[in-house]
Amino acid sequence: MLILFLAPLAAGALSLIVSRSRVAEYVTVLAAITDLVVSFLLLHEALEQRHTFLHNYILLDNLGAWVILCVSIVYTLASIYAVGYMRLLDEDERLPLFYALFSGFAFTMLGACVMNNVGVFWIAIELTTLISTFLVGFEQEAESTEAAWKYIVVVSAGISLALLGTVLFYWGGSYVLGPSYAMTWAALHGSAAQVYPPLLTVSFLLVLVGYGTKAGLAPMHTWLPDAHSESPAPVSAMLSGALLNASMLGIARFLSVVDGTSVSTFAHSAVVGFGIFSFVLATLFIVRQTGIKRLMAYSSVEHIGVQALGLGFGGALGIAGALYHMLNHSLNKSLMFFGAGNAMRAYQTKEIPMIRHVLKVSPVTGTLWLLGAVGIAGAPPFALFLSEFTILRAGIAGRYRWAAIVFVIFLIVVFISFLSHFRDMYFGTGPEPEVRSMPGVLWRAIPMWLAFLPLLVLGLWWPRGLWNAFMQIYAGLAGGTP
Amino acid sequence: MFLAHVSSLQASIFSLLAIFSLLLAFVMLGSHWLRNYVYAFAAESWLIAALSAAVAYFGGYTELYIIAILTAVFRGLVLPYLLMRIVQRLNVQREIHAVLQPSSSLVVGALLVMFAFVIANHMNFQTSTAGEVVVLALTIMLSMKLLGFLMLAVRDQAVSQILGLLVLENGIFLGSQILVPGMPMLIEIVILFDLLIIVACFGMLIRYLVVHAGTTSSRQLNRLVG
Q1: Would you call A58 helix, strand, or coil by DSSP?
Q2: How many Cβ atoms are within 10 Å of B107's Cβ, its own excluded?
């Protein structure tokens, strides 16, 4: 447990102290791999028993450990990719700073996953914003500075709503538990049933909108395409694959706090509503998108919407689908952003119409990218198909059948429009553009393979152990100890 | 529950302080001058510190005295000082191109306060003095929230946007002093420090904005669309 947090901290500090970019690269990769190994062990540990540390401030439970696993997978992939990618930017002297921020970002996200105190969880999420702002603006051009500014203003304003909601939750609980108590998830859940319902409704909505802003649910997603498209590719992968999950964790936990109370149905409907709205809106933006990284960013909004749908549908299938989707989306979206980063560097542009004949330029990574695109559009045999199908089954079985139908229709739209962009890039006619050759291909190909292979395996075979883990998390969520 | 046996004198003191801070939010809304915003924000923070001290005195929460002092020092002195420095360095004196004129934004602000009152009334289930204070606190909390969002929406100078965010947070702080004085102190202190870091980050970002984007007006940040 301690190692999980010490590794990125040490890596960050070392990068700053030694101040040599080569050292910083390798230390970061090493820390990330350590984190990955530890997070597997932690998940195993948490499935057996939940632990609390430091006077109940820190909680290691199965849901948190699952998100930790997703975050450290993306951290590992992105840090390997960063070695190959960041060298292309010709900013060698600022690289140690980049890696220090990068590890700090990972540290705050991992920290958020184990916070048992609702207030401290809010602070951890806020810290992720502050650190990642500077990663978004790292390239120091007009666009990236603009994106960083929008990011911090929109997200800080949104997340302050979550703070208001948290305070109101605490106030509601203080009628039951006395004026001063430890604001843990379990305490909130225990008192929620006796809180005056309108108060509970308002608090939940505020929290949902607040963390929804951070998670990129529409219509609070406006910062997301800018920040994801303007930051360096490894950072985009971290934002999309890891950060969004950490904020979804907040929504999942609050949803389980109000479960079993009189507003539970309303809360689920609200989450489903935001989910379906994000999904539809993102789909429409995908259809006419011309920026390659903005395309990926809207695809993130879409998949966050799918996760929210899974959580909102609820039930064993819905929760399992949402959690499985979280892992698969982390893997697949990292793959996609890596591919987009390669294309961006090779063609020196972010515009889809300028990217042509990808297969001729980079046969191996190009193929992986194309297969990843097929996967992220939701086609079998890749893992996202399985998780989306599970969520769909949950929707049809439950009371939100209308949402499931809209979901299916727009899944088809997404599939067609997303792949038509890729058809243009791979097989479209057009002059063969000038391409610059880039060193460090191996560093950029390895993480793509590492993301692709599990995606294929998980798409063909849903391990029994994982299913059991999901069922255990579901029981925990429904049973009141989130 | 501390509010359950609040006397009418205490209730009026709390109400007075809270209403004055709401008035200061309107002062910010009705002015063009960036300098006035900062002064109004500082005064508002001092009022909130006074409120914390009052709650500490009447309710017997000794740790709130510490919060009061920290609020006064950080929000009342350090943050306004940092903001003043930014204003002076940028050499921007006033909002020129605000979407809404101050007079019309005052009217919109008044409507928002009414809306906040309606919601607050729905959330309350007590009668008696305690209920009145609760409704007032909730109203002011929500309306400062809404006013902060209004400022974010109609102002386009970077400094005004930071101040809008700070007004959002002030509203939460003010409400939480009255509603949940027993909230663990650790969290409040961390949130205070958190604010300091936020403003420092904003300061750095503004410098980047000037260098790379050539403007501090969000209206001209329009490269990224679609």
Answers
A1: strand
A2: 11
| pLDDT at residue A481, rounded to an integer | 45
Q: Which are the contacts of A215, defined by CB distance < 8 A and separation ≥ 6?
A: A244, A247, A248, A250, A251, A304, A308
Q: How many CB atoms lie within 10 A of CB A407?
A: 24
* Closest-approach residue (CA) in chain B for A227: B224
Helix (H, G, I), strand (E, B) or coil at A351: strand
> What is the residue type of A413?
V
Q: Which amino acid is it at A98?
A: F
Per DSSP, A78 falls in state H
Cβ–Cβ of A225/B224 closer than 8 Å?
Answer: yes
The residue among B1, B187, B192, B204 with the most chain A CBs within 10 A of its CB, best to mutate, is: B187
Work out the percent of chain A whose per-residue pLDDT is above 70.
Answer: 98
In a domain, B200, yes or no: yes
Give this complex's ipTM. 0.89
Q: Which of A145, A169, A195 to mutate to test the interface with B (most CBs of B within 10 A)?
A: A145
Residue type, A221: H
A227 to chain B, closest Cα gap in Å:
10
Q: List chain A residues with pLDDT less than 50.
A: 480-482
Report the mean per-residue pLDDT for chain A: 86
Which pLDDT does position B1 carry in this prediction? Answer: 52
Q: Which domain holds residue B108?
A: 2-220
Chain A positions touching B168 (Cβ under 8 A) are 157, 160
Nearest C-alpha neighbor of B34 from the set B176, B156, B125, B148: B156
- CB contact under 8 Å between B184 and A119, yes or no, is yes
The domain spans of chain A are 2-479
> Based on the structure, what is the number of domains in chain B?
1
Residue A271 three-state SS: helix
Q: Which of B1, B122, B213 sits opposite A146 (nearest CB)?
A: B213
- Asked whether residue B226 is domain-assigned, the answer is no
Spatial contact of A164 and B172, defined as CB atoms under 8 Å apart:
yes
Closest CA of chain B from A250, distance in Å: 17
> Has residue B225 been placed in a domain?
no
Checking phi first, is residue A315 left (phi over 0); if not, alpha (psi -120 to 50) or beta? left
Picking from A126, A202, A285, the nearest residue to B123 by CB comes out as: A202
CA distance A154 to A213: 8
Mutate: best of B5, B122, B123, B162, partner A, most A CBs <10 A? B123
> Average of pLDDT values for B22-37?
86
pLDDT digits (tens, 9 = 90+) for A27-70: 888 888 888 888 888 888 888 877 777 777 788 888 888 999 99
Q: With CB atoms and an 8 Å threshold, state whether A164 touches B214.
A: no
Q: How far apart are CA A461 and CA A386, in angstroms?
A: 9
Please name which of B187, B184, B181 lies closest in space to residue B1, comparing C-alpha atoms: B181
